[in-house]
Amino acid sequence: xxxxxxxxxxxxxxxxxxxxxxxxxxxxxxxxxxxxxxxxxxxxxxxxxxxxxxxxxxxxxxxxxxxxxxxxxxxxxxxxxxxxxxxxxxxxxxxxxxxxxxxxxxxxxxxxxxxxxxxxxxxxxxxxxxxxxxxxxxxxxxxxxxxxxxxxxxxxxxxxxxxxxxxxxxxxxxxxxxxxxxxxxxxxxxxxxxxxxxxxxxxxxxxxxxxxxxxxxxxxxxxxxxxxxxxxxxxxxxxxxxxxxxxxxxxxxxxxxxxxxxxxxxxxxxxxxxxxxxxxxxxxxxxxxxxxxxxxxxxxxxxxxxxxxxxxxxxxxxxxxxx
Length: 323
Prior knowledge:
There is one protein chain. The protein has helices at residues 22-28, 308-316; strands at residues 2-3, 9-11, 31-36, 43-47, 51-55, 76-79, 87-90, 93-97, 107-110, 122-125, 134-139, 144-161, 164-184, 187-194, 212-217, 223-228, 242-245, 248-252, 258-260, 269-270, 283-288, 291-296, 303-307. By secondary structure, the protein is mainly beta. The chain folds into 2 domains: 2-231, Methylamine Dehydrogenase, Chain H; 232-323, no CATH class. The chain has a 6-stranded antiparallel β-sheet with strand order 11-12-13-14-15-16, with no helix packed on it. Strands 3-4-5-6 form a 4-stranded antiparallel β-sheet, with no helix packed on it. A 4-stranded antiparallel β-sheet has the order 7-8-9-10, with no helix packed on it.
């Protein structure tokens, strides 16, 4: 579903290549990544099978009801590698983790998507890092920038130039399994569950507990802040149970409660009450306009939305922590 900043649907794609196979059709519409391609406005959507559908943005649609059935057709279908959990855009290239089931080290860097054939060609890079469990990136219109890799116990930032990854800018150790990397101005936040969970499969997400977070200077990797999670977040394969709200780390717990890290604190604080009596599985969080939007892989097909001004007011009422 494509929606505007108020989460009003503007277009729906609900077609599957497996109309007579329920399980395969679910994997076909099991979306692992949604990436806006630089300078084109096109949106690339990668599913579990490694099929990449490219859509023209439907923002020009007139307001009004959206049909309940398939409404949006893709421009192209490209084949890539299946079971990839982490994907970022780097200009018109993709940088991805290796397939989760194969546990290969490093990242894959695709050829330019807009000029690719039906089968996307990709090169491996930075195998020395180990298995990649988190990614984020930033690139300029000239194609230069950086890519951050997160894994079991460490974070690495590497230089990027026109679809190629070069030298390591810096690398730093952490005492958790990195699942989240978020850029914040001149710094980079990393967060994840307790170390030792790299081999936990998709169905044992409840075994991923504890963990911590750290803030690094993007230029040199200096540690600016670090803390522990006071309660478990909704960790799990492919999940992103944390976002920055007014530059404050805001984590999502197993039952939908929110946890924040006040400035100078060493442990997170619970900010809101639970929204469910049972664990909701793996969380995916993002700030959209002035709303924190959270989805889970359990508890039904719904989004939980909290206005950022409400969270900001709650955070202002927390006790202050001096560094």
